[in-house]
Write a structure and sequence with these properties.
- The protein is built from seven helices and nine strands; from the N terminus they run βαβααβββαβαβαββα.
- By secondary structure, the chain is of the alpha/beta class.
- It has a single domain, classed as Rossmann fold (3-Layer(aba) Sandwich), CATH 3.40.50.
- The strands form three sheets. It has a five-stranded parallel beta sheet, with helices on both faces.
- α5 links the parallel β6 and β7.
- About 35% of the residues are buried.
Length: about 180
């Protein structure tokens, strides 16, 4: 049994990426899953002066330990102006300063969603290129377009049958890959 950590790269209390990643967690039955909210780990805006002055916070170390304890990660990134949010970038900055290889040996499923037709594809591509620099192995990725049209918050599930099939296929392949 593998331990899989799920989280969204958003700091919005109404994050659709958090809703998508939470749905994904409900679809994995044969492993230990944990969904966290990054806003539970308060991190100030990264700066070298702050790092030199105060070092690394307890909350940063707690988040780092959560990641280290997991066998695999499922991350859903949000998009601001065709890239990842400053919030998620800041989280990555802090983690990578604490340990440049904070994702070493981590298998990752990357997802993204937005209300647009591209489903935050630019943020997804950016993240696919960046996380391997910190040791991650990207196993699968999935961009979920037009969230409000294709996801039912009433039933907490993907309502578009074609997208549900694609999502299920990606998730099943990811789970199969982490079992090896």
């Amino acid at each position: 049994m593998k331990k899989i950590l799920f989280f969204a790269g958003s700091n919005s209390s109404k994050s659709i990426n958090h809703k998508l990643v939470s749905f994904a967690a409900t679809q994995v039955a044969e492993h230990k899953v944990e969904v966290i909210t990054l806003t539970d780990y308060k991190l100030p805006m990264f700066g070298e002066d702050l790092e030199n002055e105060k070092g690394y916070s307890v909350e940063l170390r707690m988040l780092y330990n959560k990641i280290k304890e997991a066998d695999a990660l499922v991350i859903s990134v949000n998009e601001h102006n065709s890239t990842v949010s400053a919030y998620f970038k800041n989280t990555i900055d802090w983690l990578s300063r604490l340990d440049r290889n904070f994702l070493k040996d981590k298998k990752v499923l990357l997802m993204s969603t937005s209300n647009g037709k591209r489903g935050a594809a630019s943020a997804l591509e950016y993240t696919k290129n960046v996380l391997p620099r910190f040791g991650a192995t990207i196993i699968e990725s999935f961009s979920f377009p037009s969230y409000s049209e294709n996801f039912s918050e009433e039933t907490n599930s993907i309502s578009n049958e074609v997208l549900l099939l694609g999502f299920t296929d990606v998730l099943q392949n990811f789970v199969h890959q982490i079992e090896q």
